[in-house]
Amino acid sequence: MLSELRTIWEVLKHTFTKAETVQYPEEMPYLSPRYRGRIVLTRDPDGEERCVACNLCAAVCPVDCIALQKDTREDGTWYPEFFRINFSRCIMCGMCEEACPTYAIQLTPDFEMCEYDRQNMVYEKENLLINGVGKYPDYNFYRVSGMQTATKDKGQAKNEAAPIDPKSLLP
Amino acid sequence: MSELMPVLLALTILIGGVAGAAILTWFERRLLGVWQDRYGPNRLGPLGIGQVLADMIKLLFKDDWVPPFADKVVFIFAPTAIVVAMMMGFAVVPFAPGMMIIDVNIGLLFFLGMTSLAVYSVLLGGLASNNKYALLGGLRSAAQMVSYEVFMGLSLMGVVMMSGSFSLVDIVEAQTDVWFCFSQILGLIVFVIAGIAESHRLPFDLPEAEHELTAGFHTEYGGMKFAMFMLGEYLGLMLISCMIVTLFFGGWHGPALIGHWLPPLFWFGFKVFIVICFFVLLRAAIPRPRYDQLMSLGWKVMLPITLINLVITGAVLLWMEGAA
After folding, report:
1. Which of A7, A8, A14 minimises the CB distance to B37?
2. Most-buried pick from A57, A122, B54, B166 (CB within 10 A)?
3. ipTM for the whole complex
4. Spatial contact of A78 and A97, defined as CB atoms under 8 Å apart
5. Candidate from A10, A14, A21 with C-beta closest to B39
6. Which residues of A fall within a CB distance of 8 Å from B301?
7. Which of A12, A13, A17, A26 to mutate to test the interface with B (most CBs of B within 10 A)?
8. In 3D, which of B112, B125, B52 has the Cα closest to residue B82?
9. CA B102-B108-B312 angle, 5° bins
10. Is residue A122 exposed (0-12), middle (13-18) or buried (19+ Cβ within 10 Å)?
11. A29-64: b or e for each residue (b if 16 or more CB lie within 10 Å)?
12. How far is CA B219 from CA A76, B176, B203, in A?
């Protein structure tokens, strides 16, 4: 009986507390830069696509909402021929962002992506690509990786030592 | 003019009762919001009062469907019974001096009879739905009403003893100096608890108990027939509040010192408002008891308290009579 009276008193005290509600359309909730919302594909500082079509994001995706196909440019670099994310399946878990070796795929603090037609939830590459570097402004995969391209030989990448000739190590 | 007065008043109560119940749905949700640190319906119109209209339009335009397996006549009759019974109960409520439809010398019994009749609505609704949940809701309702009816009536006998009349006007007049809420505190507690059980509101809404019985006795109801049940429930809430004020809080009498500043009707309305707020607070704060807990509370706690109250009141009255 005493606990019931105490409950009534505790609830009555809430007459003077402020409502916790955020009145959403008029009042936007704060979303941190690390919020996991709509997925974008970023470009490197030179304006080229960062994605190298390694398929790690598609492999790690728990709901299999990412589909892509690798293709090779004339200079030997890789890029996705198509890149498709089905947002009606996506659960915004961010595992694709963690798996990406080139910082290409990133999640943004935007969640307002409702559609009347379900087919519009499927985003193609031109819908996903942004003209920016996202969270990593200076990163360019081909400049730090040891991969050989038309413009860069082995050992010419940033922080990379020249390749060692194994035969010179012979006694 | 004096013959026309009760008719006009009856019409006012009819319209006011329905409108009050409609506004009460919105008011209750807003008040629950205040106590649960949220807003409640605040979108339509100023303070969200337009929600009342929106709900009404929605309920009016819903398909008036009767399930093929239901007992048609009883199914349609059941929701009207509760509204009629509760509306009839308002006939004896004295709102202000001279402002009541009829002053019968058995007003209190009439009120008790009308609230008892409301049980038929729930019971018949549950039976006619031909649905397991509805039947269980009706069954619970019947048992709850029967057991709480007993000491709901008995708890008022102390008031009757002290005022010496069943007429509600006489009872209010008897509280001119001291309200019965002080001398009849046990009766008040029991009557409030029985009143909640009688109007089957939370925390005693076991006939509905949406967590266990989907919606209890009105599982199969929709549209206007469902709205009638809701109307009846809110009318019951208002009627019980009116009776609590009339019987225990001095009816139209204001508090001792400042009572004459404002008209009697204001004091009556204000006190009813406070009691309704208290009922909403109970809904916000107290969880629903288990069914056997409800029954044992009724028979093992409430009934003895009522009888003790009865004995004490009688003894004191007799002693005072002997002393005088």
Report:
1. A14
2. A57
3. 0.72
4. no
5. A21
6. none
7. A12
8. B125
9. 150
10. middle
11. eeeeeebbebbbbbbbeeeebbbbbbebbbeebeee
12. 68, 46, 19
The beta-carbon neighbor of A7 closest among B36, B39, B285 is B285
Distance CA A94, CA B116 (A): 61
Whole-Å CA distances, A161 to A7, A140, A141: 71, 18, 17
- CB proximity A8 to B under 8 Å: yes
Q: Choose among B179, B182, B178, B216: nearest CA to B200.
A: B216
Measured in angstroms, the CA of B216 and the nearest CA of chain A are apart by: 25
Interface test with A, best of B29, B34, B43, B293 (most A CBs within 10 A): B34
Q: Which B-chain residues 268-287 have CB contacts (< 8 A) with chain A?
A: 281-282, 284-286
Helix ranges restricted to H, A40-132: 56-60, 95-99, 125-128
**Residue A7 near chain B (CB below 8 Å):** yes
Cβ–Cβ contact B33 with A under 8 A: yes
User: Could B285 and A18 be called an inter-chain contact, meaning their C-beta atoms sit closer than 8 Å?
Assistant: no
In the predicted model, residues of chain B with pLDDT beneath 70 are: 1-2, 209-210, 259
B163 token code pair? 């005022």
A7-to-A13, A66, B89, B277, B299 alpha-carbon distances in Å: 10, 51, 33, 16, 24
CA distance B156 to B239: 15
pLDDT tens by residue, B164-201: 888 888 888 888 777 877 778 888 888 888 888 887 77
Do residues A137 and A45 lie in contact, with contact meaning Cβ atoms separated by under 8 Å? yes
Neighbours of B299 (CB within 10 A): 14
Tokens found for residue B264 = 């009697």
Nearest CA in chain A to B31: A15
Query: Could you read off the pLDDT of A53-102 as tens digits, one per residue?
Result: 999 999 999 999 999 999 998 888 889 999 999 999 999 999 999 999 88
